[in-house]
Each structure stands twice: as structure tokens, then as C-alpha cells.
């Protein structure tokens, strides 16, 4: 069969270590299913600043553009935290999303039954929780004009938030399309009681909703949503929201699954090309200890198979293997109740590839 080219950007902190486990999954998929992957590594984030003087070198961007999909670890760390904007790893991440046109970030939070005890929430509250956050990824306050100025009382900083009708329409359509494949419920999250961008957001979502009469649409203010996610998580199906709200709400939703180390993501544009990365960051507090949870990254590979390659058999094999390994009681530190029995990153990865079946 056709060879799929995957650009691999490990990044910083725990990024390379979780990506390493995902690469084992790619290899196991080749053995089991006969699919062929060509992987090529690129420098990205803090390590690219150190080696090339920029977080997103042109050759890395070119590599991604020449690939069918991108597998990304995470970027950032204290070493670069006081750098100017251009020399921050996070600026590279925003740049790659923008340059590749990846306006839609899909972050599924499905609760594995056996991990209910790993969550800080009560198991009965989590019962039946299976939601997806659809986060707008290339607009809003992240990408608006930013500057400092001299105000009446000294220095001021300004971040501007802008959304166009077209940007809202395309992310709304993505979310409605996803809702149609699931429970046909969509919660659109905004702050329309205060923000002009949110008032436009709500208007446009209402207009797009006319194309999807079967989808039950709820508008919910972001502060209320943050609360309802903990109060009645199982009542959500698809949540669509702007860039910064989506960033925050998806980390909150991660705790429904037991750990941020469980949350995978897909960043998509108009075509089948996608960038796949865990929702978590470079976790400097545990970097280098080989104790990070690789499941978020491994499940991101399953998303890549489903959404970019259409390899549904291999995606299911990964998802089933993760569930089987967790059901057998295997845990990394972040999801372990008895931390003394926790597995290392590579032990978890090895168990998952051993459990993969055709
Ligand atoms: P973080 O997600 O890196 O870590 C938050 C907490 O979760 C930490 O205690 C960490 O140890 C834990 N954690 C995260 N992933 C884990 C995993 N796989 N297994 C076990 N525990 C895990 O968020 P942060 O500490 O706010 O940010 C650290 C750095 O990462 C910052 O530089 C930030 O800008 C960057 N960041 C990058 C991305 C990305 O590359 N997509 C995402 C978020 C944060
Ligand atoms: C994420 C991260 C990034 C974001 C940062 C590192 C720029 O938190 O991918 O969720 O805010 O989008
Ligand atoms: Mn985030």
C-alpha cells in the first residue's frame, strides 16, 4: 500500500519521550496491518531555538508541508520563559498552526470506566461522560495585535481579540458535522454578555445551525460552562468555542478522564492533512524522569489514523489496546492510585504495543 509520510516533532521536556512511544505504535501498526510509514524528524520549539536560533525553522515548516501528517510532542520550558516573543517555543507552536491553516482543534475526553478512581471527581458524576471540545485554533486573542504602550499611569500591555464571520462559520460547521456523527448535541460556549467577538460568534452559530436542524444547540456562557463541566459532564456531547476558552476548558475536561496525560488532539484545516499532539505541555516538573504518561500521544496517533489516513482498523487496534492495558490495572504515576506500583513511560508504551491486535 501507499507510504504515508509523517513529520515528527518531539520538541521539549517530555515531548520526545512520549513521541518515542507513539513511534513504537507506528512500527507495530506496520507489522500488524502492512501500512507503511516514512517518518522524518524536525527541530521545533526550545531545542530549535538552541540549535537554529528560531522556534520554527523554515526547514521544519517545509518538512511539515511535504508530509501527510505531523506528530508533535510538546514545546516550552523554563529555559526559554524569559525570552522575547520571537524566541519563545510557544510562538513556534502558534506559527505552525497558522502556517498550516489548522483552524480546528479536536480534543476528545472520553472516560475509561477503570480510570474513574483516578479522577478527582466522584465516579457517579463521571458516569457516561464522552465529550469532544472543538477549539478554534488560529484566531482570537492569541493572534490579535499585541503591544505595550505608555498609559496615563505608566506602562500598559494590550492584546486584541478579533474574529471574522468566516472564521466562526468554518469552525461552527466542523463542530456541527462532528455532532452529526455523535449524539447530535452541540454546546456553543461564549461570553456574549460582555464580549463583542462573542456576540458575533453567537449570531453566526445560530445562522449555521439552520443547516443542521437535527442538532440540538445550546448556548452557554464560558463561566457557567466551566462549572457545568464539573457538575454534569455527561450531559455534554460536542462543545465548540473560541481559541482561549477552548484552551482552558479542555485542560479542565482532561481531569474528567483522570489526567491531562490521557487527552489526545487533532488539529485540522479544510483537507485531510492534520497535526496530532497531546493536549498537555512539556511538563518540565517531570521531564527526564521517564514517568510521563504516553497515552495522550498514543491516542493522538489513533486520531491520525482515523481522521487523516482513514485507517480505522489500526485506530481501533490502538484504542482497544489502551483500554485493555488500563483494564488490567497498569498505570503511570499520574493515573495511579498506588504510586509505588506505577510504570515508566516506556513500560506503558511496551504494554500497549504488545496488546495491539489485527
Ligand atoms: P503541562 O501540561 O506541561 O503540565 C501540567 C501538569 O501536568 C504538570 O504537573 C505535569 O507534570 C503534568 N503532566 C502533563 N503531561 C503529563 C503526562 N503526559 N504525564 C504525566 N503528567 C503530565 O503544563 P504547564 O506546566 O502549564 O506548561 C509547561 C510548559 O509546556 C510551558 O512552557 C507551556 O508553555 C508548555 N505547553 C506546551 C503545550 C504544547 O506544546 N502543545 C501545551 C501546554 C503547555
Ligand atoms: C495548548 C497549549 C498552547 C496553547 C500554548 C503552549 C501556546 O497550551 O496547545 O493547549 O495555548 O494553545
Ligand atoms: Mn493548553
UniProtKB/TrEMBL annotation:
<keyword id="KW-0028">Amino-acid biosynthesis</keyword>
<keyword id="KW-0460">Magnesium</keyword>
<feature type="binding site">
    <location>
        <position position="135"/>
    </location>
    <ligand>
        <name>substrate</name>
    </ligand>
</feature>
<keyword id="KW-0432">Leucine biosynthesis</keyword>
<keyword id="KW-0560">Oxidoreductase</keyword>
<feature type="binding site">
    <location>
        <position position="223"/>
    </location>
    <ligand>
        <name>substrate</name>
    </ligand>
</feature>
<comment type="similarity">
    <text>Belongs to the isocitrate and isopropylmalate dehydrogenases family. LeuB type 1 subfamily.</text>
</comment>
<protein>
    <recommendedName>
        <fullName>3-isopropylmalate dehydrogenase</fullName>
        <ecNumber>1.1.1.85</ecNumber>
    </recommendedName>
</protein>
<feature type="binding site">
    <location>
        <position position="97"/>
    </location>
    <ligand>
        <name>substrate</name>
    </ligand>
</feature>
<keyword id="KW-0100">Branched-chain amino acid biosynthesis</keyword>
<feature type="site" description="Important for catalysis">
    <location>
        <position position="142"/>
    </location>
</feature>
<feature type="binding site">
    <location>
        <position position="107"/>
    </location>
    <ligand>
        <name>substrate</name>
    </ligand>
</feature>
<keyword id="KW-0464">Manganese</keyword>
<keyword id="KW-0520">NAD</keyword>
<dbReference type="InterPro" id="IPR019818">
    <property type="entry name" value="IsoCit/isopropylmalate_DH_CS"/>
</dbReference>
<dbReference type="GO" id="GO:0003862">
    <property type="term" value="F:3-isopropylmalate dehydrogenase activity"/>
</dbReference>
<dbReference type="InterPro" id="IPR004429">
    <property type="entry name" value="Isopropylmalate_DH"/>
</dbReference>
<dbReference type="InterPro" id="IPR024084">
    <property type="entry name" value="IsoPropMal-DH-like_dom"/>
</dbReference>
<keyword id="KW-0963">Cytoplasm</keyword>
<comment type="pathway">
    <text>Amino-acid biosynthesis; L-leucine biosynthesis; L-leucine from 3-methyl-2-oxobutanoate: step 3/4.</text>
</comment>
<comment type="subunit">
    <text>Homodimer.</text>
</comment>
<feature type="binding site">
    <location>
        <position position="223"/>
    </location>
    <ligand>
        <name>Mg(2+)</name>
    </ligand>
</feature>
<comment type="function">
    <text>Catalyzes the oxidation of 3-carboxy-2-hydroxy-4-methylpentanoate (3-isopropylmalate) to 3-carboxy-4-methyl-2-oxopentanoate. The product decarboxylates to 4-methyl-2 oxopentanoate.</text>
</comment>
<feature type="binding site">
    <location>
        <position position="247"/>
    </location>
    <ligand>
        <name>Mg(2+)</name>
    </ligand>
</feature>
<dbReference type="Pfam" id="PF00180">
    <property type="entry name" value="Iso_dh"/>
</dbReference>
<feature type="domain" description="Isopropylmalate dehydrogenase-like">
    <location>
        <begin position="5"/>
        <end position="352"/>
    </location>
</feature>
<keyword id="KW-0479">Metal-binding</keyword>
<feature type="binding site">
    <location>
        <position position="251"/>
    </location>
    <ligand>
        <name>Mg(2+)</name>
    </ligand>
</feature>
<feature type="binding site">
    <location>
        <begin position="77"/>
        <end position="90"/>
    </location>
    <ligand>
        <name>NAD(+)</name>
    </ligand>
</feature>
<feature type="site" description="Important for catalysis">
    <location>
        <position position="191"/>
    </location>
</feature>
